[in-house]
Specification:
Strand content: under 5%
Structural class: mainly alpha
Helix content: 55-70%
Membrane topology: Multi-pass membrane protein
Protein name: Xanthine/uracil permease family protein
Number of strands: 4
Number of domains: 1
Family: Belongs to the nucleobase:cation symporter-2 (NCS2) (TC 2.A.40) family. Azg-like subfamily.
Organism: Halogeometricum pallidum JCM 14848
Keywords: Cell membrane, Membrane, Transmembrane, Transmembrane helix, Transport
Number of helices: 21
Distance between the termini: 58 Å
Radius of gyration: 22 Å
Order of helices and strands: HHHHEHHHHEEHHHHHEHHHHHHHH
Length: 468
């Protein structure tokens, strides 16, 4: 039996109405559409002194840390997607998720002052909780526990949060003493000018459905910046090229760092961090699986994805392994829909994605050479796409509008995904009770709301310092 026949038989390719060739092409398509994360995830998670919070390792430059996270990103994505392929037999790609990596760096490590090792410990704990809940079939209970308008609003809130982070890195949005934020000196700043060019180039490619449009936009923008600097059109200190391209494949300072983080835990704050990681990961994954499943015709008559516990388990295992290696939460990518639209129907598509992530380890130095403004183009593009989630919210019902609106608004304005979710959860039972719809409120809703009220008080009253 040849390789083609073996793959066909193992993944039941023909029974799913596909072919090995179609699955291979679908896997390549999915990889191209989601491969931008290899550049973006390290850029978000790496700390830059006096610029942004994140992972900083004593004795290593930001460039070296970024290359470590690039290696870890590739390994975590490869492992998670491999489990999706051989265990769940679904054509879904996985990698560290946008939004949760921003929550990790800007909220947990930055705003809360939590050591990055402890943040990784929270990721690992969240992954283990996810595994246990999936193993015992508690998915439905967890889904019912959270208010529906909050679930639908999270994606849009994260989209706005990602967009403002990206626009800041690109020099398009800057801080202002009078208005907090304002438009930057775009026409006078080479970084902002090139960022605008790169952003619209990416939008054009994305709108035309070009596979890998985001990655092409990032690489193209970086190449133009390098060319302008090399030709002397702009000065080397204009910021169009990466400050350092020092790379390393040694991930030992990251791998296993979560263990030391477990020894520096304050119970309530740590639980909140784990809860937020879990909440966003669980519902983002569930929503993505259903959305991509619909595109592939996988859903049953009731709109459910059969055997959804298997891809959920793959996601949970990926998150746990990713946290142990040294990256934020792994999730299933909506970009998997591109491969499904190309005809991918089985885990063979995912296997191709997994192998391509491993092959990409040879190109870590390229990823390290991408400047921050170019990599953050992806945040704005994905942020804009995520705004489409608002259509799932019933805006005609004020008891949905208020918690959904609070979730969406509080995230970018407080620079915190967790605070946005908390604001929505607190407001939901209050407005439901006020509208005389107490029958829609569970005891769990009130318990979560009360816990968050206490947390907000503790965090903002000065009772404790901003650290865990």
């Amino acid at each position: 039996m040849g390789l083609t026949e073996t793959l066909d038989e193992y993944f039941d390719v023909q029974e799913h109405g596909s072919s090995v060739r179609t699955e291979l092409l679908a896997g390549l398509t999915t990889f191209l559409t989601m491969s931008y994360i290899v550049v973006v995830n390290p850029a978000i998670l790496t700390a830059i002194p006096d610029v942004k919070p994140g992972i900083a390792i004593a004795g290593y430059s930001p460039g070296q840390v970024e290359s470590m996270i690039t290696v870890v990103t590739l390994l975590a994505a490869a492992v998670a997607t491999f489990v999706m392929a051989v265990y769940a037999n679904r054509p879904f790609g996985q990698a560290p998720g946008l939004g949760l990596n921003a929550f990790f760096a800007f909220t947990v490590v930055g705003a809360l002052g939590v050591p990055w090792q402890t943040a990784l410990a929270a990721v690992v704990v969240e992954g283990i909780v996810f595994i246990l809940l999936t193993a015992v079939g508690a998915r439905e209970y967890v889904i019912r526990l959270f208010p529906e308008p909050v679930k639908f609003a999270v994606g849009t809130g994260i989209g706005l949060f990602l967009a403002i982070i990206g626009l800041q890195a690109m020099g398009i949005v800057v801080d202002d003493a009078a208005t907090l934020i304002t438009l930057g000196a775009v026409a006078a700043d080479p970084v902002a000018i090139l960022s605008v060019f790169g952003l619209f180039l990416t939008f054009v490619l994305y709108a035309r459905g070009v596979p890998g449009s985001i990655l092409i936009g990032i690489l193209g923008t970086s190449a133009v910046g390098w060319l302008l600097t090399t030709l002397g059109v702009v000065s080397p200190d204009a910021g169009l090229v990466a400050g350092s391209t020092t790379t390393t494949y040694d991930i030992t300072p990251l791998a296993g760092a979560f263990v030391s983080g477990l020894g520096n835990v304050e119970a309530f704050s740590f639980a909140l961090i784990v809860f937020t990681f879990f909440f966003v990961d669980f519902f983002d994954t569930a929503g993505t699986l259903v959305g991509v499943g619909q595109a592939g015709g996988f859903l049953d008559a009731d709109g459910n994805l059969p055997d959804i516990d298997k891809p959920l388990m793959a996601d949970a295992v990926g998150t746990t392994v990713g946290g142990m290696l040294g990256t934020s939460t792994v999730t299933t990518y909506i970009e998997s829909a591109a491969g499904v639209e190309e005809g991918g129907r089985t885990g063979l598509t995912a296997l191709v994605v997994s192998l391509l992530f491993l092959v990409s380890l040879a190109f870590v130095p390229v990823a390290a050479a991408i400047p921050q403004y170019a990599s953050h183009i992806a945040l704005v593009v994905i942020g804009v796409v995520m705004l489409g989630n608002v259509v799932d919210i019933d805006w005609s019902d004020v008891t949905n509008t208020i918690p959904a609106g609070m979730t969406i608004l509080v995230m970018p304005f407080t620079y915190s995904i967790a605070y946005g979710i908390a604001a929505g959860i607190v407001s939901y039972p209050v407005v439901k009770a006020a509208a005389g719809e107490s029958e829609d409120v569970r005891l769990g809703h009130w318990a979560l709301a009360a816990a968050f009220v206490v947390y907000f008080f503790v965090r903002t009253s000065g009772v404790i310092q901003s650290q865990v």
